[in-house]
Amino acid sequence: MADDSPQAIRAEAIESLLKERGLITEDDIDEVIAMYNERVGPMNGAKVVARAWTDPDFRRALLDDGSAAVAPYEFEGGQMEKLVVVENTAHVHNVVVCTLCSCYPWALLGLPPRWYKDPAYRSRIVREPRKVLAEFGLELDPAVQVRVWDSSAEVRYLVLPERPLGTDGWDAERLAERVTRDAMIGVARL
Ligand code: FE
């Protein structure tokens, strides 16, 4: 075993027990890994964002009721019972956190990055958002209002970033390639 951390050893032990008792099979595990490697990840969120940039009716629907607007996509991954989409503008910058743990819209963004679960990010982004954002390389003009959204077991947030300049006439597919995970959490702008 390449990873001999206590967590890896514990995971391995739990996995063997579950298999031994017939609760899961090797195929079940492969399926979950394949899902998060291939079908669930920021590309789903990027698709939604790019469509919102190119389809005003969809954008309105998304901001009005995120869960309902993305339901037809039938994204896998879960954690999306109540999705709230918040829109960045020239005057407002939104950033998402889960102060309590690591709630995150898996179906749209995949599994959360390590820093999102870090107690330092979770407490500091609330107390000193501009400073934390600057550490991510995002220096916001003092005139831009920062809004911090605290996720919960009930509500997950997605930031709708501003469409980058110089992308006039691009189709949704090409635009989606410009959308990053960090921009959809709100620690980056495009
Ligand atoms: Fe949480």
Can you describe this structure?
It is a single chain. The chain has about 190 residues and is mostly helical. It has two domains: about 1-40, no CATH class; about 40-185, Nitrile Hydratase, Chain A (Alpha-Beta Complex). The protein contains eleven helices and four strands, in the order αααααββααααββαα. The strands form two sheets. A two-stranded parallel ribbon has the order 1-4. α8 packs across α9. The chain starts with 5 loop residues before the first helix and ends in a 5-residue tail after the last helix. The relative contact order is 0.17. The model has no long low-confidence stretch (mean pLDDT about 95). Bound molecules: fe (iii) ion. Fe (iii) ion (FE) binds near residues 98 and 151.
Topology:
Layout (H helix, E strand, L loop, with lengths): L5 H15 L5 H14 L2 H13 L1 H9 L1 H5 L12 E5 L4 E6 L8 H4 L4 H4 L1 H9 L1 H7 L9 E6 L5 E5 L11 H5 L4 H5 L5
Parallel strand pairs: 1-4, 2-3
The structure holds fe (iii) ion.
The site of fe (iii) ion has 6 residues, from loops.
